[in-house]
Amino acid sequence: MATGKTYIVAHRRRREGKTDYRKRLALVKSKKLRFVVRKTNQAVLCQIVQYEHNGDKTLVQASTFELKKLGWTGPTGNIPAAYLTGMLCAKKALEKKCKEAVFDMGIFRNTPGNRLFAALKGAVDGGLDIPHSDEAFPPADRLSGKHIPEKGEQIAKQFEEVRKKLVGK
C-alpha cells in the first residue's frame, strides 16, 4: 500500500562514502586530465585519468609496488614512496604526451604534508604542470625519509638512488 511519501536515495557510491559528486563534477567540467591519487595502508596509486561519457579512461598508472623494479626495498606506504610514485607517474605521462592535469584527491582530507601531497610534489618535480600551492607539500626531510626512526638514513639513501634513476629517465 503506497503512503504517498517520496524518499530521496543518494547515489550508491555517495552512500558508501566513495565519491563526492560535487567535487567530481567540478573536476570533470574543467575538461582537463586529472592526476588522481589514492592511498591504502600499504600503497599509493597515481593515475592520469581522462573523462569520457561512457566512463573514465586511465591513460597512465603508477603504484608504489613498481618502485621495487627501480631498487626500492623500503616500505611502500610512506611519504618517500608516495613522492617517488608521483614522479614515476609523471615520467610515464610525459612519454604519452600528457603535460598538464588537475589534482584529484578524492574524498581524502585536505591535510597539508600528507602522502597525497607528497605524490603531487613528485608529479610536479617529474615535469607535470599541475596547479598547486607549495605550502601543502611536506618538508624536504620528510620527503626523503630522514624523519623515520631507526631506518631514516637507510631510506634516505635509497630514496636518492631511486630518485636519480627517475630523473635520468
Present the secondary structure layout.
Elements (H helix, E strand, L loop, with lengths): L11 H4 L5 H9 L4 E6 L4 E7 L6 E7 L15 H17 L6 E3 L10 H12 L13 H5 L7 H17 L1
Parallel strand pairs: 1-4
Antiparallel strand pairs: 1-2, 2-3
Written account of the structure:
The protein has 169 residues and is an alpha+beta fold. The protein has a single domain (20-168), classed as Nucleotidyltransferase, domain 5, CATH 3.30.420.100. Helices cover 38% and strands 14% of the residues. The chain has six helices and four strands. The chain has a four-stranded mixed beta sheet, with helices on both faces. A hairpin with a 6-residue loop joins strand 2 (44-50) and strand 3 (57-63). Helix 3 (79-95) runs parallel beside helix 4 and helix 3 runs parallel beside helix 6. The termini are far apart.
Strand and helix order = HHEEEHEHHH
Task: Give the CATH class.
Answer: Alpha Beta
| Number of discrete domains | 1
How many individual β-strands? 4
- Categorize the overall geometry: globular
Report the β-strand fraction as a percent range: 5-15%
Instruction: Report how far the terminal alpha carbons are from each other.
Output: 68 Å
